[in-house]
Amino acid sequence: MKSFTYERVDTPAAATAAFARTPGARFIAGGTNLLDLMKLEIETPSHLIDVSRLKLDTIEPTSDGGLRIGAMVRNTDLAADARIRRDYGLVSRALVAGASGQLRNKATTAGNLLQRTRCPYFYDTNQPCNKRQPGSGCAAIGGFSRLHAVVGASEACIATHPSDMAVAMQALDATVETVDKAGKARRIALADFYRAPGSTPHLETALAPGELITAVTLPKPVGGTHIYHKVRDRASYAFALVSVGVVVQPDGSGRVALGGVGYKPWRVKAADAELPRGAKAVTSALLAGAKTSHENAYKLPLVERTLAGVLAQAKG
Amino acid sequence: MAPSDDFPISRRGLLAGGAASVATAAVARPAMAEAAPSRAPASPPTAKVDFEVNGTAHSLELDTRTTLLDALREHLRLTGTKKGCDHGQCGACTVLVDGRRINSCLSLAVQHDGDRITTIEGLGQPGNLHPMQEAFVVHDGYQCGYCTPGQICSAVAVLDEIKAGIPSHVTADLSVAPAVTPRELRERMSGNICRCGAYSNIVDAIVDAAGVKA
Fold first, then answer.
1. Which long-range contacts (CB under 8 A, 24 or more apart) does B56-62 make?
2. Are residues B174 and A99, on separate chains, in Cβ contact within 8 Å?
3. Inter-chain contact B190–A48, Cβ cutoff 8 Å?
4. Distance CA B133, CA B213 (A)
5. How many CB atoms lie within 10 A of CB B131?
6. Which residues does the UniProt record annotate as the domain 2Fe-2S ferredoxin-type (chain B) (predicted)?
7. At B52, is the secondary structure helix, strand, or coil?
8. Could you tell me if A215 and A225 are in contact, meaning their C-beta atoms sit under 8 angstroms apart?
9. Which end of chain A has fewer beta carbons closer than 10 Å to its terminal beta carbon, N or C?
10. Which residue in chain B has the smallest CA separation from A6?
């Protein structure tokens, strides 16, 4: 691990001010992904700004009937919150489908959104990777690609976003709240939060350098049946091959988002409208224009079959 | 790193001593070949951290890179907590921080200022075992024993998590408090790998300990 200096801050303003003072700094909260990447020298910050003690660890009602989830709320606490379990079951279900009990106790809401891909070539510093080292190439294309993206990928990168929670948040139209280096707050729809890889896969989100996530808000509850189904190589503690998150209303309408298929949680509004027509129609709309390798082509029928199972379960 | 006086000679100590000798031999050669005095590398940044481990207060000045796991093992000589993968994938390093289980390998020690840490040594000792330790012995919940401290720390926290109503992936109904069942325990313990495959006995031990606690 490269050496770094360390400071702990108490307020978001102090955090962004510290960043402005120290080029090359990174914020650290739970650290379960960042520290792992630092050990491998994939991340090499010269300074760490510890934001884990910021008073952003509560879940509060919003004026429009939704919830504001503080950036530092731990994954375990979010999954266990009575309001989340009652009104946003998809979020609870997605969270407990991810990682392990130990990691969920440490990982934060903001950190979960910002975790980086688990593409094995991103982790292997002996391999080219445009995300890790821009311009070096992509070893996943033409390589071991059964875990990789089938939609939204580019000639430069076919990595997937690994979060389960983000899939639920995407289905529920979450918004990310931030504060930037100048202290200016803004709101970014989660739908606009992740950047398509294009020719710059190392740029992953809409955040500017030094911009800090302070909260994630959920609009007022939408009711319906919430189901998150994750398909993986083992029954627990593994990343998704594909995952399907749905909210289905009694009349068969609803919303659907996918994990494990692209650089972001994958949601297509036109696909939501197809829900009453069944899994085949929805999958066609969701995965229109999919590009597969012989190793990950299985994801297309797997999405359709998983969705069919989920929709049957929603009918009860 | 020579064993300290209160740390009896062990296989581990001998191995560490051997490694230190090799390192000395390796750096001695270039120093002799160069006439100019070698410049000492700049010492890495450090930070101070105060925390409580198993009821004892500690104040350490650490290289900022030191993980909580390495602080416990290499600085406090609490070697009950094991380093397996060092990447949060195996659970051997599980400890309790303010009662919650975490992977100590994926946490910087300096981030734990003011925290109350419990390791396997703090749960119980021979002659005064924690009920979970006792149950692992009774049910033979191990073979080589390397993952066992992590398994036991994790298991103690799992029962607390179930008691606190925290749901798991296999909890059927999010509106109903989860119960201590083998299925719940297997899911909740999935962050602790046992390569000897003692899983069925581990589940038996936790079920037993849960009964003792109730």
1. B60/B109, B62/B109, B62/B110
2. no
3. no
4. 13
5. 18
6. 47-123
7. strand
8. no
9. C
10. B64
Q: Which of A20-24, A191-195, A232-236, B196-200 has the lowest mean pLDDT?
A: A20-24
Q: Torsion over CA of A134, A135, A141 and A143, rounded to 10 degrees?
A: -90
Q: Which domains does chain B have, with CATH numbers?
A: 44-123 (3.10.20.30), 124-214 (1.10.150.120)
DSSP β-ladder status, A175-179 and A67-70: unpaired
pLDDT, chain A, mean: 97
How far off is chain A from B150, nearest CA to CA, in Å? 11
| pLDDT mean over A139-165 | 98
In order of A5, A213, B107, B148, B176, the CA distances from B110 in angstroms are 11, 23, 9, 26, 38
pLDDT digits over B166-175, tens only? Answer: 999 999 999 9
Verify whether the Cβ–Cβ distance B45 to A39 is below 8 Å.
no
**Which residues in A lie closer than 8 A to residue B108 (C-beta atoms)?**
6, 28, 31, 35, 48
Q: Which of B62, B63, B65, B188 should one mutate to test binding to chain A, selecting the residue with the greatest count of A CBs within 10 A?
A: B65
Cβ atoms within 10 Å of A129's Cβ, excluding its own? 26
Predicted confidence (pLDDT) at residue A74 exceeds the cutoff of 50: yes
Residues of chain B with pLDDT under 70: 1-41, 212-214
- CA pair distance A215, A117, nearest whole angstrom: 22
8 Å CB contact of B154 and A32: no
Closest CA to A213 of A76, A78, A111: A111
List chain B residues with CB under 8 Å of A32: 88, 103, 106-107
* Model pLDDT, residue B39: 61
**In contact, A203 and A195? CB cutoff 8 Å:** yes
**Contact check, Cβ <8 Å, B106/A32:** yes
Of B64, B158, B169, the CB nearest to A5: B64
> Chain B residue with minimal CA distance to A2?
B65
Phi/psi of residue B183, nearest 5 degrees: -65, -45
B106 with A35: Cβ contact below 8 A: yes
Q: Which residue has the tokens 């002996």?
A: A126
pTM across the whole model = 0.93
Summarize pLDDT for A212-247 with one digit per residue, the tens. Answer: 999 999 999 999 999 999 999 999 999 999 999 999
Do B169 and A96 lie within an 8 Å CB cutoff?
A: yes
**Angle ∠(B175,B207,B79) on CA atoms, nearest 5:** 110
| Six token digits for residue A49 | 């700004």
Q: pLDDT digit string (tens) for A109-139?
A: 999 999 999 999 999 999 999 999 999 999 9
